[in-house]
Amino acid sequence: MLPSEDRRTDVSLSFLQQKAIESESRAIVVLAGAGSGKTEVVARRVQRLIAREGAGRILALSYTNKAAEELGERLSSRVGAESERVTTETIHGFAHSLLRQHSTRIGLPVEPEILTRDEDRVELLTQWLNSQGLQPPTDPFAQLRAIDLDRARRIDTPEVEDWRRALASLPALDYAALLDAALELVELKSVRRQLGRTYSHIVVDEAQNLTLSQYLLLTTLMGERDEGPAVMLVGDDKQSIISFAGADPDLIKQFAQSYDAELIELTENFRSAAIISAVAGLIAGQLGQEQPPSEPHAAPGCIEYVSGLDETDEAAKISDWVEGLLQKGLPEESVAPGESLKVRAEEIAIIGRSASALRGTAQALEARGLVYSTSADAADWLEGLVGKLVLELVAFNAAARHVSPQWQLGRLIDVDPELLKTREQIAAAIRAHDNPLIAALAQLVDETDIRRFIESLRTLGRHSDGSTSDLASWNIDLEELEKAWRDYNATVDRSSQTWGDFRLYCSRRQRGSAALGVQLLTVHKSQGREFRAVAIVGMNEGQIPDFRAKSAKEQAAELRTFYVAVTRARRVLLLSRALCRTTRYGPRSTTPSPYLGFAQRLTGIRNR
Q: CA-CA distance, 323 to 329, in Å (whole number)?
């Protein structure tokens, strides 16, 4: 959800925000703290660049598909058709678009196969190692995660080389290989020259999440000083929390030094109420980044603390808190004069260090009939069984020789995957299903034209006597699939549309703002979002911070994770913990998180 301060185009800007928007430097670094209005700064700068006479296209790169879509929608609402001059993409999406245009220049097929699921990658790695007389790893999923991290950091190992050879044997690419191939393309002078003529400016949001592999693609595209497109990086190293995936916040500093970039720091928090901003400032100081004094927020805000006897009791008290907010609204002392106390369920978030930390809360909310949503991504994009089967049929048509689609189809309809190796077998198994809506799907199995396949979905269930709930779920999923197809159809030429490309597009889709109810999120999933009220669960030593953080670097990463969680809150922040936790050794007393001390230093924290 976009910040309320950012939804208006007439919002007043600070001097530093205006400076970032109007800068004429060819290399700019904007260090934008949490709640500093960076999304509005990015949008306003792109608007200004669009308005410049003779300016080329603008490439706006975001960390997530959802953020890229939101920026595109914001620009479209403000500048109309002129927004078509802006390419809003993720870095991987941009890399894929390069390959679609130029893949044959580096010896790849016109439409290289993209492996998006770990099951497909594990299958390929295992088969290739066996073909070479090598022993597959005991845990191939863990092996691939280690390989991905090494590739993100540009570290060559024997395992990385084995995986590259396995991919080349198909040939195929995965997400990391997309970046490698795109870099190889951009290193060609002819491609770089063409891109330089196309894009006059590049804006990169959430730059603290850049990996070395992504950074090299970006800087190679930029070229030497004064050679290629002008580049602005926008990020906050205090919010760099995905080092496990290779992100390196120091790359922002490296860029600033290498390109003598203009440095602009946005430190004022326009999002969070005064007391929450104060806690964020204390954390920033602990991270070595003292925040300059600023005008206190008009809303005082509220920080609350609650402890449960055990994790079940903690979850119950969090549910009490949620019910209280929905029935009575925000505490009157937390809001600005004239601000509404009413709060919707979607404006409340429960944040945990891990998904397991949220399970008890989910059960407690469900027991009370309170609607909630967990973080939505490509894995849970569609909610009904029929919709998920349709997506697996797309995957089967994209790569029929891989076992993953058959395995997924078998799991969904409870049939042995060994009996689903041909179209005829798949159609027969679906037709024999006792759910009439699923059985009706069999008529689409033999459709090999993707456009006719999508068009035929509308007729599915029209004459079915499926249950009301099944039909309702299918209608919701059908809307999602048709919207995905419309968006895909609008951005990809008809001659270039393939099953594989649409499958990749779907794998990157997120339900995003369609999620209803209280939001249950891990800290990593919460990044880039904000809520009027936030609860952070599990405030115990060993949970937050994580018990595995031993080194100074790891401990700093944990503190940045807490900073991100705290700064998701706009008005109310609840910190909760269980006094006793169930472990494999039985019940164990807990020790409060040292991070509670940041809130305890301030007056006004309330015990519930």
A: 9
